[in-house]
Design goal:
Elements (H helix, E strand, L loop, with lengths): L13 H8 L3 H10 L11 E5 L2 H4 L7 H7 L15 H14 L4 E5 L2 H4 L8 H16 L3 E7 L5 H5 L8 H16 L5 E6 L3 H6 L6 H17 L13 H22 L5 E6 L2 E4 L6 H8 L1 H7 L4 E6 L2 E5 L2 E2 L19 H13 L3 E6 L6 H20 L4 E7 L18 E3 L6 E3 L1 H19 L3
Parallel strand pairs: 1-2, 1-11, 2-3, 3-4, 4-5, 5-7, 6-8, 7-10, 10-11
Antiparallel strand pairs: 8-9, 12-13
Helix pairs in contact: 9-12, 15-16, 16-17
The structure holds beta-D-glucopyranose.
């Protein structure tokens, strides 16, 4: 698969930062009390793991991507099917996060479950997510929810998705509904996950004509199956035309969320590798202007920015350079470069001035000792950035579970926890215990304070 779609791959004032951390004192203090080692007074650093509904829940049949997995031709190597059965086993997942001494769990709310047909709201689905949120809090975990993690309802895509003129209002209505149900109990809300992913994947590259054609055919089949003449979703079609409506949807969502829960921190997440210019005429700044600037501009008015980094990206005078031949690679062909996250944090904070939450960081690997090395080095680089005084709110590893990696299906292993594909049995990998001990020692050290 050569497509990059859905694949991996100024200091703010101390006063403003303190105000931000105090935004949800009840939840954060509760998190601090409930988790055994996590007893910081008001602002515990968030150590956690992340998932997304479509990648773990299973049978998300009313979503746009479910349909794309079923049609002919398709770019998906296999359908998501039962995924990790997390719609049923979510309590096991929450317990896993708790048992690893972490204090935060990021997961997404599947819009297509909440509103499977336009205007028909499933109270049962809303109550399901409410139970998850409450269970997290009881377990001492800060619940961090994502409102759009790539998927949207099939009916929404069949109307033209984010390109439909009503899309921002429709999304904001959905967000308001969710926040009315869950808002009082969540610690942070993310509107969009990586709305810049397609721009990032395509920047400076000539699209593979076969993949491009298959994408078009897949969307045409999905439109046909939906009785529509169009089918459009995040990260398909022309990436540049999607930016304005998605940012408008983000702003409207932020506003309605604030209207309902004024103290709930709202942000989006961006895919930001550690971009490194090579040579005097490199195009680093061109890339930054095209791929991040419009989003970073809007994020300046958010409460935090989610940074998602997997590796570094070298940029020469012609654009992206290949991974150096001698470099160690991950299962998905990224360069093994765990220190990338520190640089992304510095860049993202420098551009926005808002606090940074590492909402995803990790690697695909079948070799868990490689993941263990990654976690040690990546968390050290996050702590270094935090020690420089950058307001870093937390580190959420991607992912809690080996899950459905979009086009690549169940091949890539991003999980701290393995999932048996036949029984759904979860098995904690040794690397998860490394993250657990780093979290434990950081939290207890911070509780003791400087010596
Ligand atoms: C996405 C995840 C994905 C991960 C690894 C991120 O782009 O948010 O859904 O699984 O990267 O590729």
């Amino acid at each position: 698969m050569t497509s990059t779609f859905l694949n991996r791959r100024n200091f703010m004032s101390a006063g403003a930062f303190a105000a931000m951390l105090a935004a949800r004192p009840a939840i954060l203090t509760e998190t601090a009390k409930a988790g055994t080692p996590n007893e910081e007074a008001v602002s515990p650093f968030l150590w956690g793991a992340a998932t997304a509904g479509h990648q773990v829940e299973g049978n998300n049949i009313a979503s746009d991507i479910w349909l794309l997995e079923q049609v002919e031709p398709t770019l998906f190597s296999e359908p998501s099917g039962d995924a990790c059965d997390s719609f049923e086993r979510w309590h096991e997942d929450v317990e896993l996060v708790r048992s690893l001494s972490l204090n935060a769990y990021r997961f997404s709310i599947e819009w297509s479950r909440v509103e499977p047909a336009e205007g028909q709201v499933s109270l049962s689905a809303l109550q399901h997510y409410q139970r998850m949120v409450v269970a997290c809090r009881k377990a001492g975990l800060a619940p961090i929810i994502t409102l759009s993690h790539f998927t949207s309802p099939r009916w929404f895509a069949a109307k033209g998705g984010w390109l439909h003129p009503d899309a921002p209002a429709t999304f904001a209505r959905h967000c308001e509904r969710v926040i009315r149900h869950l808002g009082n109990d969540v610690s942070h809300v993310i509107t969009f996950n990586e709305p810049n992913l397609q721009l990032l994947g395509e920047w400076g590259r000539t699209p593979d004509p076969v993949v491009r054609q298959t994408m078009k055919d897949m969307l045409a089949s999905a439109a046909h199956a939906s009785g529509s003449d169009q089918f459009s979703l995040m990260n398909t079609g022309d990436a540049a035309t999607m930016v304005a409506p998605v940012l408008e949807a983000h702003k409207r969502a932020r506003q309605v969320i604030k209207n309902v829960c004024g103290d709930l921190p709202v942000g989006m997440t961006l895919a930001i590798p550690d971009d490194q210019g090579v040579g005097p005429d490199n195009r680093l700044e061109d890339k930054r202007a095209a791929v991040y600037a419009p989003f970073l501009d809007v994020a300046q008015n958010d409460d935090f920015l989610g940074v998602q980094t997997y590796s570094r990206s070298l940029i020469g005078p012609e654009g992206p350079l290949p991974v150096p031949e001698s470099a160690e690679q991950t299962q998905t062909g990224d360069e093994f470069y765990p220190q990338a996250i520190g640089a992304s944090i510095r860049y993202a904070h420098g551009q926005t001035g808002v606090p940074i939450l590492v909402t995803e960081n990790g690697l695909a690997t079948e070799d868990d000792s490689q993941r263990a090395r990654f976690i040690r080095a990546a968390t050290a680089s996050v702590i270094e950035a935090r020690d420089e005084g950058i307001p870093v709110l937390g580190y959420l590893h991607w992912s809690l579970l080996d899950n459905f990696e979009w086009f690549a299906g169940y091949g890539p292993k991003f999980g701290l926890v393995a999932v048996d594909r036949k029984t759904f049995k979860r098995t904690i990998k040794p690397s998860a215990n490394i993250l657990a001990s780093i979290a434990r020692s950081d939290l207890s050290q911070r509780k003791r304070g400087p010596t």
